[in-house]
Design a protein that fits this description.
The chain is an alpha+beta fold and 168 residues long. It has one helix and eight strands; from the N terminus they run αββββββββ. Strand 3 and strand 4 form a beta hairpin.
């Protein structure tokens, strides 16, 4: 009787030849998973920065709306906001006229002074409408802010029979 010695760790030679193919498939699947994860991570980071911007805007908007609805002329409130570095600029009191480029003409328009919008560094533009009318301190221009920390003063003012919340 002839006994053939076999090693259980080696097994069939065809399986050994198939190992590089299996390894290649595993590497391709791992690369796809890592790519999807990194793309998802970028989206999550951008969404969190947009959420932070909108939270700061809500802080301003809550005070502005309350003042516009219930306060007397000359009422003032100071609001502390921190806009993240992903924000390019935010405009209170106007609509975008030249896409995602910062407005050059800051003159207030009676038809659009109750709007506000922001532009992120990646080109995301979001536009909103409010009950309150916004302006800068001089009551003739839109209020524009960039990335950074601000202690904004909101003041309720009357001009030509209309009520405005000035932001400076």
């Amino acid at each position: 009787m002839i006994f053939k010695r076999t090693n259980p760790l080696v097994g069939d030679e065809n399986a050994v030849l198939g190992q590089p193919v299996y390894l290649l498939v595993v590497i391709i699947i791992a690369a796809a998973i890592i790519t999807l994860f990194s793309l998802s991570l970028q989206n999550i980071i951008m969404d969190s920065q947009i959420h932070q911007v909108e939270h700061e805007i809500d802080t301003i908007l809550t005070e502005a709306t309350n003042m516009f609805e219930y306060a007397d002329e000359g009422s003032m409130v100071t609001v502390h906001v921190e806009f993240p570095t992903a924000l390019q600029f935010i405009v209170f009191g106007g609509l975008p006229t030249n896409g995602t480029t910062e407005p050059t003409n800051l003159t207030l328009d009676e038809n659009t002074n109750n709007n506000y919008y922001y532009v992120m560094n990646d080109g995301t533009l979001r536009l909103f409408h409010s009950n309150a009318r916004f302006s800068s301190e001089n009551l003739t221009q839109m209020a524009v802010f960039h990335t950074g920390t601000y202690d904004l003063t909101l003041e309720l003012c009357y001009n030509d029979g209309k009520t405005y919340v000035t932001i400076y």
